[in-house]
Design a protein that fits this description.
It is built from 16 helices and 15 strands. With 439 residues, the protein is α/β, with parallel strands linked by helices. The protein has a domain at 2-152 and 307-372: D-Maltodextrin-Binding Protein, domain 2, CATH 3.40.190. The chain starts with a strand and ends with a strand.
């Protein structure tokens, strides 16, 4: 089934807190720049490293565009979509905004973004400048509404010291989920016999990776419920077994005092799955050496989760030309090479990525080819209108499974289907969507 939109309904909006803003630098008006000062509102999320990177970018941009001042506003990732929605509804939109591809279809349905295709054609910005597939989350009907800021395949960070201590072979390019499970069990250790593990084998692995590698899926391209496919059930069962049967993953109760990243950083977790945005933080670790490894292969395929973020110009922007100039600069080679040099994110640009992927080879990770190899089998989630809402419904029952409150996978998945399908029908009415047969 395909979903197509009719005119958007008016939705009730809740106010959300906006993080601290800052204006970077002192704008100067120079020859050929005009005399009118333009201030762009730029909405982003991120931690201190991300904010500092944006501040550096803005200083670079303003040096080239002294008649444009950029007012950077940051909010938490959890509140970002609500803040953006509230600002758009209130008529005080940012000119440039981060894009979350998960909510991109919902905002596109509300006509929130300016189409960039004509501007790209005018200024000679080609899709070929970006790695294959990284613009697609921001396209619709052959039109581009955003440019990619970053991308990450989930890889496995592993603690060499723990592998050596417990006599476990380092992850190999040919390993499978059986190999992973065997290694994880050997690395999950209760040394003093008090019933509480001092060390865990692994943590923070995306559930989708297991489901995909067994030939299943979570949702179809238009929100169809797919968790009850045989491959999805098998992958979900292995994920749960790694928590409850094998004790490789710390359970939610075992993460109360330390989350998986904290466990890894303090030397208690042998394998940790995440994108390489964590490299700057992990390079501060002194108590053990670490490297990265590829995701194991499942019975159906090898897979990993790709995550991405992008930039867009809002349709309501009062300065769309200047906003486009900022987006074009941020997605350009100079800004992206800086991003690569500080190892904050892999650049989506072909030139910046290839020239700096192996920057500072003396620093970890040593096995950087893993990032390149993961492109070949990585995949994004399905992005569709209503995805955040349907995912929330599915997670209600998934949380019961991971916490151990429910132990019957088939029964929980059946209950999940009922909850998701009910919410999907509500969204069809709420978003005024129509379904039509697939072509």
């Amino acid at each position: 089934m395909k979903w197509r939109t009719r005119p958007a309904l008016v939705l009730a909006l809740a106010l959300a807190a906006i993080g601290a803003g800052c204006k970077i630098g002192t704008p100067r008006v120079g020859p050929g720049q005009g005399t009118e000062l333009v201030t762009l509102r730029y909405l982003a999320w991120g931690d201190d490293t991300e904010i500092a990177m944006n501040q550096h970018w803005i200083a670079m941009f303003q040096a080239e565009h002294p008649n444009i001042e950029v007012d950077l506003r940051t909010v938490s990732g959890q509140n970002f979509d609500q803040v953006l929605l509230t600002q758009l509804a209130g008529g005080i939109p940012p000119d440039v905004t981060y894009i979350n591809p998960t909510s991109f279809p919902n905002f596109l349905r509300r006509d929130a973004y300016l189409e960039l295709t004509p501007l790209m054609q005018r200024d000679g910005v080609s899709l070929d400048e970006f790695l294959p597939g990284l613009v697609s989350p921001y396209e619709h009907d052959g039109r581009v509404y955003g440019l990619p800021r970053s991308w990450h395949p989930f890889v496995i960070f592993y603690n060499k010291r723990l592998f050596d201590r417990f006599g476990v072979e380092y992850p190999q390019p040919t390993w499978t989920w059986d190999d992973f499970t065997d290694a994880g069990r050997k690395l999950s250790v209760d040394e003093d016999g008090d019933g509480a593990k001092e060390f865990y084998g692994a943590g923070n692995f995306p559930m989708q990776v297991f489901i995909w590698s067994y030939g299943g899926d979570t949702f179809g391209p238009n929100g169809e419920f797919l968790y009850d496919q045989p491959g999805a059930i098998q992958g979900l069962q292995l994920y749960l077994d790694l928590i409850h049967k094998y004790g490789v993953f710390p359970s939610p109760a075992e993460q109360v005092t330390q989350n998986p990243q904290q466990m890894f950083e303090t030397g208690r977790l042998a394998m940790f799955a995440l994108g390489i945005w964590s490299v700057p933080a992990f390079r501060q670790i002194e108590r053990f050496d670490w490297d990265i490894a590829i995701m194991p292969r499942g019975p159906f395929c090898r897979s990993t989760l790709l995550v991405t973020a992008g930039w867009a110009v809002t349709r309501q922007s009062r300065h769309p030309e200047e906003a486009w100039q900022l987006v074009k600069f941020l997605a350009g080679r100079e800004a992206q090479e800086y991003q690569m040099k500080i190892w904050r994110d892999p650049s989506p640009r072909v030139d910046a990525f290839k020239s700096l992927m192996f920057w500072e080879p003396e620093k970890p990770p040593a096995s950087r080819q893993v990032v390149l190899d993961s492109i070949e089998f990585g995949r994004f989630d399905s992005y569709f209108v209503g995805q955040p809402e349907l995912t929330t419904e599915a997670n209600r029952e998934l949380d019961r499974l991971t916490s151990g409150l429910s132990t019957d996978v088939a029964a929980s998945v059946a209950k999940m289907r009922g909850m998701v399908e009910q919410r999907r029908q509500e969204l069809i009415e709420e978003f005024d969507l129509q379904t039509e047969p697939s072509a």
